[in-house]
Amino acid sequence: xxxxxxxxxxxxxxxxxxxxxxxxxxxxxxxxxxxxxxxxxxxxxxxxxxxxxxxxxxxxxxxxxxxxxxxxxxxxxxxxxxxxxxxxxxxxxxxxxxxxxxxxxxxxxxxxxxxxxxxxxxxxxxxxxxxxxxxxxxxxxxxxxxxxxxxxxxxxxxxxxxxxxxxxxxxxxxxxxxxxxxxxxxxxxxxxxxxxxxxxxxxxxxxxxxxxxxxxxxxxxxxxxxxxxxxxxxxxxxxxxxxxxxxxxxxxxxxxxxxxxxxxxxxxxxxxxxxxxxxxxxxxxxxxxxxxxxxxxxxxxxxxxxxxxxxxxxxxxxxxxxxxxxxxxxxxxxxxxxxxxxxxxxxxxxxxxxxxxxxxxxxxxxxxxxxxxxxxxxxxxxxxxxxxxxxxxxxxxxxxxxxxxxxxxxxxxxxxxxxxxxxxxxxxxxxxxxxxxxxxxxxxxxxxxxxxxxxxxxxxxxxxxxxxxxxxxxxxxxxxxxxxxxxxxxxxxxxxxxxxxxxxxxxxxxxxxx
Length: 514
Ligand code: BES
Ligand code: MN
Ligand code: ZN
What we know:
Layout: E1 2-6, E2 17-22, H1 30-38, H2 42-48, E3 59-63, E4 71-76, H3 87-101, E5 106-109, H4 119-133, E6 152-156, H5 162-187, H6 195-209, E7 212-216, H7 218-223, H8 227-233, E8 241-248, E9 257-261, E10 263-267, H9 287-302, E11 307-317, E12 329-331, E13 337-339, H10 347-360, E14 365-370, H11 374-380, E15 385-389, H12 392-402, E16 409-411, H13 416-421, E17 429-430, H14 438-447, E18 455-459, E19 465-466, E20 476-477, H15 482-492
Parallel strand pairs: 1-6, 2-4, 2-5, 5-6, 9-11, 9-14, 10-11, 13-17, 14-18, 15-16
Antiparallel strand pairs: 3-4, 7-8, 8-11, 12-13, 15-18, 19-20
Ligand BES binds near residues 347, 374, 377 and 461.
């Protein structure tokens, strides 16, 4: 896929299709109005026919006889009053998915007039949407039925700030590719995406982006005292890998952001085995870890000025002959003992040691992401991830950074009651707290391993993958939390006017919303 800027007059652009935006129930504006005039009003006519309702991603196609572009695809941005730049990713994604399935390989895409003065983030979202919209889910088909054909996308810059559009495209491509990397790692089945394979993928990211990598094997993990992590791995024939990636964007600073991701490459539940129905979806139980690896690859490209460590404890959760049994007691890196009531509550067991390790490395802020609880899907459905924190200011900073990306996070509370629910009669903690507030007792458990470091836990069980496709996105893994991780890193990076603007193309991130 190539995404680039083109300065030509819209009416003169050679392409298989020209994509223009509209707002539902509003007269055409900008490039859409210009093209409509040139074509004698066909788009306005089609829109007034009532064939399209104008929900985000709805579209009409018109053929542009004798024009260098052969078709015009008008795609809805939804309501004019609720426009936000991230919707441009969905607009662009809907266009490449629709046209790509019709074998249109080269397209040109217009920005709405609202992009003026905000070109970089708008172009970034268009580029991100082009890349994420073209994600290929047919990796294992010998003769793919629905591979998308669009390979060449020009973003129209006529009438806009060309430099801003160019830097925005570069950023959007980096983010889109990272999102797709996370999705590819997640969609790959567990027989191929083993902990060893995840470590290899992380090594490739490190190699390509100049990051440091350290992969602890079972023996090294034991030496570190990671009894909780290893208790999950011991039922599996696949060796566990504890993956650590490091990006040093500000060697003069002592600040270190740790991104921690659950890397269960398959969750059978262990001895507390899961029912068969939908168990295949548990190949996605490493989505948090995939998000960490992918976010690190985006940071290697974007080069924000801060230090980040990415930590992914990777293992299967299997009911092998050596598996942990309910009632077994294990010891985490910080010395706390855990009574394993339910071996299916394994995510918190591997994260416990990963959070301790983040502290050992000197993390000054920690964010973890995990497909941790079914209870989260009950609470928030697939509409948002849960966010729980021990530090209100850090959480606010995260929520502010994440909001413009389009990924949704909803603040859920911490009360000491949840910690009380996790006390064991025989050990320091138990790994389940009963049915009430399952997402929050899991968070309270994790809190026992972060010490006083400002920390945010993201439960992405309902958002990491989706059962349904949309106009702009294939079904399956979504790439959550890659966009939020990158946005947080960029918001923590001190602005430095001497630096290449490519890392902060919008210059004023506070103005991301239009
Ligand atoms: N990976 C699951 C959580 C999950 C469930 C993610 C459904 C996505 C969809 C996790 O390891 C798990 O099994 N959690 C248990 C915890 C319980 C035993 C306390 C759960 O939610 O049932
Ligand atoms: Mn489980
Ligand atoms: Zn799990």
